[in-house]
Amino acid sequence: MSDDVTLTDQFGRSIEYLRISVTDRCNFRCTYCMPLEGLPWLPKADILSYEEIVAIVAQLAPLGLRRIRLTGGEPTIRPGLDALVRQLRAIRGVQDIALSTNGVRLPELAQPLRDAGLDRINMSADSLRRDRITAIARRSFAFDPVASLIAAQAAGLSPIKVNVVVMRGVNDDEVVDFARLTQDHPWHVRFIELMPVGDMQALTWEHVVPTNEILDRLAVVDRLAADAGPERGNGPAAYYRFPGAPGTVGVITPMTHTYCGTCNRVRLTADGRLRTCLFGDHEVNLRDALRAGQPLEPLFREALAGKPKEHALLQMQVGGLRALSQVGG
Fold this sequence. Notes:
Elements: E1 7-8, E2 14-15, E3 17-21, H1 50-60, E4 67-71, H2 81-89, E5 96-101, H3 106-116, E6 120-124, H4 130-137, H5 145-154, E7 160-166, H6 175-184, E8 187-193, H7 211-217, E9 225-227, E10 238-241, E11 248-252, E12 265-268, E13 273-275, E14 283-285, H8 287-291, H9 297-305
Parallel strand pairs: 3-4, 3-12, 4-5, 5-6, 6-7, 7-8, 8-11
Antiparallel strand pairs: 1-2, 9-10, 10-11, 12-13, 13-14
């Protein structure tokens, strides 16, 4: 099959990006992402093995899949993640492999993951203060987000993106501190509007800080000019840069402005269900078909035919999600 094969959904959007959840578990219990008590974990037998993940990607790559992101839960808590990266890197057609992580294990894992073929990371960091990190994550770690980002940079991972979920009265007083990081480091700090989902009832619309307000606050640092952002993986963010800064500031606006019209992604859950929209309820079971030896292309095309035009989050419809951790964001 030729290298220029592309798949489109019913609205003509080209689908080339697969987010793969390798585990539903996490070592954090972030207030906006997972209930304090956790969730009923998937039985081990239901979770895709690394070999099964590789087999799925190997069948989808000839159909136009080019970009992969490994997510969780927290993907770095699953043992041997570098082995999965190495196998995915060997699949013809895969051009880009990224990782979403909370960063706790990056000081030890950044270099092995890079050596295995990982291209880049997105790291969630909702505070730069240790006590506040503990309060938001509801877990206590001797964790320095900046040290983890420096480890990722030293390993050669690039671009490095820092995702900050902004919550009014919780961490919104740190947006300037985060933005200043871009003046000293070639990092891309992205401020994300809070998405109240499922069981996260303690965080409501009152905690959402609109993007325009965030950008206005950054005026105390310096003038921001529109920027193209990183060369790879720009996704839904709009980017800006301070004069002479090596990094950029980005904003992602799921609540005040949807970006569904250009969505090019689908998601594979840890138990092998292809989910076509983060907040949709349309899923196709790839795991059972794979284990039965059936080809996946018809199921993939079926899934794309049902991919919705846009999410219904603004109507508080979240596709049955109890927590964002279930699908890796």
